[in-house]
Amino acid sequence: MKKFILGILSFLIVGCGYAPIGRISDNILEDKIFVDVFMNKIDPQNTVAIKDAVKDGIIYRLHKELSDKKNANNFIIASINHLSFSPLTYDQYGYATSYRVNLVLAFEARLKDGRVVRFSGSGDHDFRVTRLLKNARDTSSIISDQERYEAIKNASTQAFDEFIAVLGIESLKSSEFK
Known about the structure:
Layout: H1 2-15, H2 21-24, E1 32-37, H3 44-61, E2 65-66, E3 74-90, E4 96-110, E5 116-128, E6 131-133, E7 136-138, H4 145-173
Parallel strand pairs: 1-2, 1-3
Antiparallel strand pairs: 3-4, 4-5, 6-7
Helix pairs in contact: 3-4
């Protein structure tokens, strides 16, 4: 029975034309990609988190190689359009205990055929800032650098996932996809 269900499931997945995004993106992106994030001079730490998230997306989601600018076949440039931290919950003393980071990134990519695609992607991430210290809650509502980095990186990953979806649509629109 398991083999029968597995066979039917395999047939449906293969038969419906499913293809992983890494394979679909082969039609519009070369293997070597240059990634850059425009530096925000007010808060350069955010740029590092965003660049890390975009590079991880290139390597692990699109299965492409990172390259320097002169050897790259394509480029993807990201910049921060909007970044905000909003308190979500408060404790009984009025201190914020959790926050949401909202991030909007502008992406620009040069495709295989020379076209340049521009798209904005958004992401958010909720996180807590209170900690349990010696059986008592630390009610400091200060966001640590590590929490800020992780929150921005997670929101950047969501924004990059939206961008990957746009790349998939562009690939399906292209006449090269078979």
